[in-house]
Design goal:
2 copies of one chain form a homodimer. The first copy, chain A, is built from 9 helices and 10 strands. By secondary structure, chain A is an alpha+beta fold. In chain A, strands 4-3-5-10-6 form a 5-stranded mixed β-sheet. Chains A and B meet through helix 1 and helix 4 of A and helix 1 and helix 4 of B. The structure holds a DNA duplex.
Chain lengths: ~290, ~290
DNA sequence: CCGTGTGATACCTGCTGGGTATCACAGTGT
DNA sequence: ACACTGTGATACCCAGCAGGTATCACACGG
C-alpha cells in the first residue's frame, strides 16, 4: 500500500476518536482494545505527515487538520457505504425507493405524494424512513435512502438535485397563556429576545451546546413540551402539525423567511423510479 | 470487520478489474499477482451477496450491479483521496489554491483571472493544473484541485457550486478549403450530417467508441489535425484559440447553445482563498 | 505524595493478504 | 481431431501486521 490512499478502517477509527475525544471509549465503541487504536491513529498521523490530535497526556483535542479530516472522513465513509448499499440493491433488484424525512414534518404532503405515487402504475413501492432533524443529507449520501424531503433554506442542499413541492410561511409556536399568543400576527422582531421565552439550544455535532439563556434540548418532543411549559418558543413552518400540542398557540410570523419543502436526491443518481416520484411531486406543486 | 463496510483496497481492486476486464492486466496494474486479485474479487462478491462480473471462463464482463459498483467506487475512492489531500494541505498550511482546467480552453480568461487574483493583496497564490477533456470533475472530487474552469451546458456540474465568468457563442471549425467555410454564418442544421465531414467519436469511459461514420480520436491535437486534413468538423466556443490552426476556418454557428465558462468548486468547500478568487471572477463577469 | 484515570509502549499471536505452482477450460490453428 | 495458448480458478505456503495483554508514564485530585 502506498503512502497515499487511506483505508476505510483508518478513517472509521479516526472518526470514532474524533467524536469521542477519548481513546478508551472510542476503542470500546469500535469493539477493539485501546492500544491498537492508539497505534492506528499514530500511524495515520505519520502517513499524512500531519498532527490530527493534540494530546497533552490528559486531554485529547482536534487540531485544525483533524477537524478537516473528520469532516472529509464522514463524507468518504458515507460514499463507501453508499457504494455497497447501492450495489446490493442493484443486484437484488428489490427496487423499492427509500424516502427519508424528518419525523413529524410535512406529514400531509408526504401522504399526498405517496398516494399519487401509488396511483401511478409504473412506479416502484416507496419505503419511508424517519430520521432526526438534519440527518436527511447523511441518509442520502450513505445510500440508506434514495430521496428525501428537505426544507429550503433551513437544510443545506449542496450536492443534491431538488424538485420543489410546496411553499409556506412560518408560525411562532407559543405557550397558550403567553401575552404574545393573543396577537393576530407577529414579526421576527417580536419573537426574538423575548426575555421569558429564550430560544432553545440544540447540541452541536460534537455534542456540546452553544452558550445562551435558552434550555438545552435534543429531541423534538422535549422542545414541544418546553413550549407547553412556557419555557421557550419556536418558529416553524405552518404545516408542522406534529409540533402542535393542545397547550400551544400558533401565530403567523409575517416576515419570517418562506419555507419550501423540496424533494432532494444525490446529484447524478437518476433512476426511473425516482423520475416517477419527481413527476408526482410536480403534480403536487402544480395543483396545491 | 463486519459484513458491511468495504475497504478501499477492495474498491481499488474492483475498479482495476472492471476497467481492464482482464484479471492479469489488472493485477499487473495494481502491482500484485493475479491469484490474490481473483480471490479478493470473489470475496467482495460474497460479501455484497451480488455477482459483479460474469466470467465465462474466457471473457470477463460487468453485470448491472458491477456497473453500479464501478461508478460508486470511483466516487468513493475520490472522496477518500480527497480526505487525505485536504488534510495534508490543512496541516502544512501551504495554502496555494489549485485550479484545474482543460488544456487549451479559456486561455485569455484564465490569464485575466490570474492577473486579477494576483493584484488582490490578500489572495493565496494559484497553481494551475491542466487536465484532459471532462476530467475536471474528478480533480475536484479527489481533492487534487480546489477549483476548476468548466463550461455550461457541456460539463456536468452536479455537486458543484459555480460562479459565472463569461458567456459566448460557438463557432464551427472547418477545413479552410471546404465549401461551408466561405459562408458568413452557419446553423446547426448546416453542420450536422455534412456527408464528407462526419462528427468525430471520442472514447467512452470504458474505452469503447460509439458507432458512427466519424473518425476515432482521443486527443485534442488529433482532432485539430483531422479538421485540417478535411476529415471532420467540430463546434466549439468562439474563444478556443488553442484549437485553431492556419488551415482552419471558424464560422459562427448562430443557433448553437451559448457556452458559459464558470468557476466551479466542490459544494460546501468554502475557504477564504477561494472566496477571493470568486470575487475576482465577479469582476471579470461585470467588466467584460 | 499517593491513588486514579488515561494514553503510550513492549511484546506476543493468529489471521489474512500476497506469492508460487498448478489446474481447468475455451478458443484456435494446423 | 488434437496440441497449443491464453486466462481465470485452486491449492498451499509464508510473513507482515492488526489486535490482544501487561505494563509504564504521566497529569491531576485529594
Amino acid at each position: 500500500m502506498c503512502m497515499d490512499d487511506l483505508e476505510t478502517r483508518e478513517l472509521r477509527y479516526f472518526v470514532a476518536v474524533a467524536e469521542e475525544l477519548h481513546f478508551g471509549r472510542a476503542a470500546e465503541r469500535l469493539g477493539i482494545a485501546q492500544p491498537p487504536l492508539s497505534r492506528a491513529i499514530r500511524q495515520l498521523e505519520r502517513r499524512l505527515g500531519v498532527q490530527l490530535l493534540s494530546r497533552n497526556r490528559r486531554v485529547v483535542a482536534l487540531t485544525d487538520a483533524g477537524r478537516v479530516l473528520l469532516r472529509e472522513s464522514r463524507v468518504a465513509l458515507d460514499a463507501v457505504t453508499a457504494a455497497a448499499r447501492r450495489t446490493r440493491r442493484a443486484g437484488n433488484e428489490q427496487q423499492a425507493l427509500v424516502l427519508v424525512t424528518k419525523a413529524g414534518a410535512s406529514h400531509e404532503l408526504l401522504q399526498r405524494l405517496l398516494a399519487l405515487s401509488a396511483a401511478d402504475t409504473d412506479t416502484a413501492p416507496v419505503d419511508v424512513v424517519l430520521c432526526e432533524v438534519g440527518e436527511q443529507a447523511r441518509f442520502l449520501r450513505s445510500g440508506r435512502a434514495d430521496v428525501a424531503l428537505m426544507h429550503r433554506p433551513v437544510d443545506d442542499l449542496a450536492g443534491f438535485d431538488t424538485a420543489d413541492l410546496h411553499t409556506e410561511g412560518q408560525v411562532a409556536l407559543l405557550p397558550s397563556g403567553h401575552p404574545l399568543a393573543s396577537r393576530p400576527q407577529l414579526t421576527l422582531e417580536d419573537v426574538s429576545n423575548v426575555p421569558d421565552l429564550p430560544i432553545a439550544r440544540w447540541p452541536r455535532l460534537d455534542g456540546s451546546y452553544p452558550d445562551g439563556p435558552g434550555p438545552e434540548v435534543h429531541t423534538q418532543s422535549q422542545l414541544a413540551q418546553l413550549v407547553a411549559l412556557g419555557k421557550t418558543l419556536l418558529v416553524i413552518p405552518a404545516s408542522s402539525r406534529a409540533w402542535q400540542w393542545p397547550d400551544h398557540v400558533a401565530v403567523p410570523v409575517v416576515d419570517a423567511p418562506v419555507i419550501t419543502t423540496v424533494l432532494a436526491w444525490s446529484a447524478g443518481h437518476h433512476s426511473s423510479a425516482l423520475a416517477a416520484l419527481v413527476r408526482a411531486a410536480a403534480q403536487i406543486r402544480d395543483t396545491p
